[in-house]
Specification:
The chain has 273 residues and is α+β, with helices and mostly antiparallel strands. It is 43% helix and 16% strand.
């Protein structure tokens, strides 16, 4: 989940020295990162801590940037640009961990439920039949074609008092798909969460992607604002876009069948930068 969340944006124009994977990691896990120009290394993007007072909007003024090799530098207003991961200005890592825990619980429930389909879980018998009963259950567990029981097996002294749990793994798998689609919408990846047998019409597709469009915008807008400020302050031209390999021109769209991917792309390009 973290890998997907950290790799949905494509930066064009960043200096080769900047580790884009590190930038994406800091944005998702810490919520922001500071861009500034070093006299030797050029444009850098590093995590920071606030040193001074906040402005009237709660934004930092004086900050201290820190590198993995011990590099530190104190930066004053107009010497840096802060890029946020989302308009909420908090680490998306928090939401992703919550969804990952829900996915892990659902996966564990599926495993347990499937395991409980094997045999009855609890048997009642007398002490004289314990060994025979264990041998019988062992034959069942090993998928023997012919299972031989002992003489008194059908008498009242042996009975199953806890049968296998009802099979619900298929329903849990549907629940996992819902969680997964929630996650994809959160990070701005197009997904179709509608369960329907027949072909979906365009209006239904557009409606189903409303959350994706909204979440995509709230992550794209702060990045777009930051790259614009970097260009104004440092005269470095950087572009940012969603990395989705969808058609980008009307000519390309006309060559495609009117499928879900084309309908989705039309919605996204008309509602986000």
């Amino acid at each position: 989940m973290l890998t997907l969340a950290e790799n949905v944006f494509l930066f064009d124009g960043l200096p080769d020295y900047i580790d884009v994977a590190y930038v994406n990691k800091e944005l998702v896990r810490k919520g922001s990162i500071a861009f500034f120009v070093d006299e030797v290394l050029g444009l850098l993007a590093l995590p920071y801590t606030n040193l001074g007072k906040l402005d009237v909007y709660g934004r930092p003024t004086t900050i201290l940037v820190m590198g993995q090799n011990g590099y530190t530098r104190k930066l004053y207003p107009n010497e840096y640009v802060i890029m946020y991961d989302n308009n909420g200005r908090y680490p998306l890592f928090i939401d992703i961990v919550g969804l990952a825990k829900r996915m892990a619980i659902a996966t564990r429930v599926t495993d347990i439920n499937i395991w409980q389909q094997k045999t009855p879980r609890l048997w009642k018998t007398n002490n004289n039949n314990v060994t025979s009963l264990r041998a019988l259950l062992s034959d069942i567990d090993s998928f023997e074609e012919d299972v031989v029981g002992y003489e008194n097996m059908l008498n009242d002294d042996t009975e199953s008092i806890l049968a296998p749990a009802p099979y619900v793994a298929d329903k849990v798998d549907e629940h996992k798909e819902i969680i997964w689609n929630e996650f994809l919408a959160l990070i701005g990846i197009a997904n179709l969460s509608v369960q329907k047998g027949e072909r979906l019409i365009k209006d239904e597709i557009r409606a189903s992607f409303g959350n994706t469009i909204a979440f995509r915008f709230q992550r794209f807008e702060p990045r777009s604002k930051a790259v614009k400020e970097i260009k104004e302050k440092f005269e470095i031209d950087i572009n940012v876009s969603y990395y989705d390999h969808l058609p980008t021109t009307l000519e390309e769209e006309s060559e495609k069948d009117e499928s879900i991917s084309v309908s989705l792309h039309d919605d996204l390009t008309n509602n986000t930068p």
